[in-house]
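Technical annex, item 7. During the second reporting period the consortium partners agreed on a shared format for inverse folding records so that results from different sites could be compared directly. Each record opens with the tokenized structure and is followed by the designed sequence. A conforming record, contributed by the partner at site C, is shown below for reference.
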């Protein structure tokens, strides 16, 4: 059930299209489709996060982690069909692709597969040009002024 009109946001702002797109994505996601595989997102520092994905039954060679256009894609596909006969198969090893949208200046610093979990570390690295800087304020008598003659 979607009753939100985002057109006032587009009329009154410039450059905030990503926020509207994000809201649209969140509101239209099918929650039942996004349940496999389970994952955690934890904050490990001021500008650092770790995504942990439960990937039981997959090897490092069957897993893929890619970054494309501010999105992190985690996918897995089994290499071949298993020849075993299962009496009960409770560990799902079906192929999947999970997408995480990342903010600007967030980059993946590493990925580790350990004990059936895939841990992906991310950090935010803001360029020096975008960091706040302090502007020195000079006194009026200390600055040379040039008179413009008409």
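Designed sequence (site C submission):
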């Amino acid at each position: 059930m979607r009753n939100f009109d985002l057109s006032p946001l587009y009329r009154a702002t410039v450059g905030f299209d990503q926020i509207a797109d994000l809201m649209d994505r969140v509101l239209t996601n099918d929650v039942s489709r996004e349940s496999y595989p389970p994952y955690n997102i934890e904050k490990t520092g001021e500008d650092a996060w770790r995504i942990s994905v439960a990937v039981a039954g997959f090897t490092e060679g069957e897993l893929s982690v890619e970054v494309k256009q501010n999105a992190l894609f985690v996918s897995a596909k089994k290499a071949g069909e298993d020849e075993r006969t299962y009496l009960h198969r409770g560990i799902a090893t079906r192929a999947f692709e999970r997408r995480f949208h990342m903010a600007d200046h967030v980059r993946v610093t590493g990925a580790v597969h350990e004990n059936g979990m895939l841990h992906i570390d991310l950090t935010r690295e803001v360029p020096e040009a975008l960091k706040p800087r302090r502007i020195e304020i000079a006194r009026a008598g200390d600055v040379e002024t040039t008179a413009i003659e008409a």
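The helical segments are 7-12, 17-28. Residues 36-80+90-126 form a domain with the Immunoglobulin-like fold (CATH 2.60.40.790). All partners now use this format for quarterly exchanges.
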